[in-house]
Design brief:
The protein is of the alpha/beta class. Helices cover 30% and strands 31% of the residues. Helix 2 packs parallel to helix 9 and helix 6 packs antiparallel against helix 8.
């Protein structure tokens, strides 16, 4: 059993938790993930490791409440236990040997981007952070990014905080002004990562995307997380989760991620009914 040490809301729908998991914390690296269950009857969900404290034996996760499983997880309190917390899984982010890197994050994906930024900065890499959100109310971890980046660009779709627009605007502005990076790392909504890849393609800049497709067992056995990368089938759980963004078939990945939207909606509705029943005196 894995105890919830800390819990805090980052915004109205995004929650950060620290989980007591010494063995996972001891080996965790930036870019890796865990698979957990919120309760004994819950589904297995993959969440990228947002940080690890080896001394305290704690692993940080950040999630957005969007379906039944994340609703169940969000309902757990400090001091309660998760039945399963498996990891670290996947390959860690390659962070060595680079002088300048741009890290582009969107929405809750910024929680995945932050440990990558920190790992790069610890190695002396000059990191430019570009983070985007739909509105100022959804902005998370802004202070943490400012502390870890050489410079930070913040965008919101509605202009309520930072620069109005999406993350591609400052990225294209920098590239158009002659800025060059050893690599651009991106994580966030699939459509955002697709356009980041298109923005860098013409400049010949290596671009890496962190993928989070449908996943069940995390061992490559179920095939649920398969992607097409360079006309080859890959599995995000064992071959990734990071891939050359210029080779990913993003359109296929977007279609596959939509397959279970109806089931997710039904699971969310069931969870809402269950929670309402539990709250009834």
């Amino acid at each position: 059993m894995y105890r919830i040490l800390k819990k805090r809301a980052l915004n109205g729908s995004v929650t950060e938790m620290e989980i007591e998991a010494p063995e996972v914390a001891r080996k965790a690296q930036a870019g890796q993930f865990v698979i957990l269950r919120a309760d004994e009857r819950g589904e297995r969900i993959p969440l990228t490791i947002a940080g690890a404290d080896r001394a305290a034996g704690a692993v940080k996760i950040v999630f957005k409440t969007v379906g039944g499983a994340t609703m169940a997880l969000g309902a757990r309190r400090e001091g309660e236990f998760l039945p399963d917390f498996v990891g670290p899984l996947g390959n860690p982010t390659a962070v060595d040997g680079m002088r300048k890197v741009a890290v582009v994050g969107g929405g809750v994906g910024c929680a995945i981007a932050l440990p990558v930024v920190r790992a790069l900065s610890e190695r002396g890499t000059e990191v430019t952070g570009i983070v985007g959100f739909r509105s100022g109310e959804e902005v998370i971890l802004q202070d943490e990014f400012r502390a870890a980046c050489r410079r930070l660009f913040l965008t919101t779709d509605d202009g309520s905080m930072g620069e109005r627009g999406n993350v591609c605007a400052p990225l294209l502005r920098l590239l158009g002004a002659g800025e060059r990076f050893d690599e651009v790392f991106t994580v966030g909504p699939l459509i955002m990562m697709k356009y980041v890849a298109e923005a860098t393609r013409g400049y010949g800049i290596k671009t890496v995307a962190s993928m989070n497709p449908i996943m069940i067992d995390g061992t490559g056995m179920c095939g649920g997380c398969r992607l097409t990368v360079g006309n080859e089938m890959k599995f995000a759980c064992v071959d990734g989760p990071e891939f050359d963004a210029h080779l990913i078939d993003f359109d296929e990945a977007i279609r596959r991620n939509r397959i279970y939207e109806t089931f997710e909606r039904h699971a969310r509705e069931r969870r809402c009914r269950l929670m309402a029943k539990e709250e009834t005196p």
